[in-house]
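Case study 2.
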Amino acid sequence: MTEALHIVCPHCHTTNRVKAADMASAPDCGSCHQPLFTGAPLALDEAGFDRHIGRSQIPVLVDFWAPWCAPCRALGPILDKLAAEMAGRFVLAKLDTDRHPDIAGRYGIRGIPDVRLFVDGAIVDGFTGALPERELRAFLDRALPSPVAPLVARARALREAGDAAGALALLTEARGVAAGDEVTLRAGEAAALLLLLTAEAIRVTPVA
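Prediction:
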């Protein structure tokens, strides 16, 4: 059993299905064959905004800004730097509120810079104003969901439904996705569940 995520290509805007285990392997778009994760900010128009926000299953951090805004120009390079460092964990998108006031109005944007984090099409967090790098890193660490959280949640659901083998396969995949990343793996919780599932799998495996 392998989970796949919908990732919208930043180049041709095609929606791709990417296996969770392949997320850290620099996947390319199946249509245009360009990298899906560039770490570069993505300038969105109305059609691109709706496609990326509505279809992408990777978090999208939207910077609502305008060229004349001095705090926006101060925040922009910090956002760009962290997006490059954390490529694959979220997509940085920029929307010019002067050129696309309807989208800004849709989300009640009144002051800029206004940064909103979208997960599965919904706003889960955000801030207004230019934050220093240290505070912006803290915001992302707090707000970004773990890349393995959907796999762990699905494993728990399968475990509760009595499918120990399926849950074990998903949690093993989750450990591979977050290998070496103690923060996102939530190692204590996941390891405890893995041990439990391993024991159950042993009990239910028939002896030849």
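Residues 179-185 have pLDDT under 50 and may be disordered.
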